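User: Okay, second chain of the day. Same drill as before: sequence in, structure tokens out.
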Amino acid sequence: MPVLVSLGMLVAVVSSLGAPLIPTIAAEDHVAVSTAQWALTVTMLVGAIATPVMGRLGDGPYRKNVILTGLAVVLAGSLLAALPLGLTCLLVGRALQGVGMGLVPLAIATARDALPPERARSAVATLSLTTAAGIGLGYPITGLFAQYLGMYAGFWFAAATAAAALTATVIVVPAAPKRPTVPMDFPGALLLAGGMAALLVTLAEGERWGWGSAPLLALAVAAVVLLAGWVLHSMHSTHPLVRVRLIKDRGVLVANLTTMVGGVGTYLLIALVTRYVQTPESAGYGFGSSIVVTGLLLVPFSAASLVTGRLVRMLGAAATPARMLPLGCLLSLAGLVCFLFARSSLWGIGTMMALAGLGVGVTFAVTPGLIVGGVPAQETGSAMSFNQVMKYIGYSTGSALSAVILQAATGPGAALPSNDGYRTAGLAGCAAFAITGTLAVVLTRTGTRLRPSVVAAGHVAPVATGERARPEPSRP
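Assistant: Same drill. Structure tokens below.
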């Protein structure tokens, strides 16, 4: 378990390395902040593409080899990003680091196979929370290295961490159970990669190209066509990259929708906070804070998410999705409301991040159990990978959306957006969590009742009114 958790923390730390450095990267390489934002967005983009590929490969007998290959790619990307060779080299390194974001579903699948059922439930919940907890760890570490050792020191730290994780995995992580090898769905991988790339470029470059420009509209149409083609291909393929049909299980559908839309609000908030507190006070707002202070403001987010996730698991059968998912969305919404009305002090921003962390902790403690409880064991890697894709789509969209809104609020010749731009972006985040909460209420309170999360609960409650409770069946 410590090695599997370290993989999750590595993913979180690596994925968050770009965010606090965005203003520094823009100044160092003499580019616009919206361009420097790609140091974060490109990692999410590659993660969204690599995750289902690694999940499908990891469902067969070669899971450990896939984990080791992913760690080796992260190590190579960290070394490349650590070299002071300019923005292009940095972005390529960050892209390679994004491959590591496919490690969390493989760690969850390993825990499900290698641990006894009772320990596996707790392990899955813990692993699902590492991505949130690692943000609060990665940001302060990045800030400390950047402020005292230079912008590239954080990437050297990532390289050392990846090397340690690679060594520990070779020694400790067991091989996957013997299962038939599933052919790789290369057409599906290409359709997903093309669709995701077109979608993210559309969001990131819309303001600069013009929302009504022919190239942007063509790119948006291409994104829709490619992603729709990927869904159709997956539904009719014998061995798809992701079994889209698994989404017909209502628990899996609820988990994926809330993960994606809630991810937009979460990363939009994180991107806003990291830029806002570093803005010089001469702009009429902001605190001119260092990267270290910026990172420390995100520690309450991680601490609250970990504590809340553990409390949800302690609630057992009472932690039903119908109760927990709307509560998580409400808490996250409260965090963004605080950003709109109480961002005049660092204490207020720290409190706001704690509220957001409470919401994320509640949500992340429930959604993995819905997925694990709705799919067979041999599909765990693929199903969790699809959920991670939904999460990274949300994260990438939130990251790109924050840059787009703030760029639109930046006047001609101005270097910084107006304060109203942050209010507009905050309202967009509020809308994301309101939509997520509405989806959670509608999908969990209509029709057949959903079971409690198999992660949060040690047993399963009745599936429908009048039906006797029965233990969660163990899957081969």
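Residues 447-476 have pLDDT under 50 and may be disordered.

User: Thanks, on to the next one.
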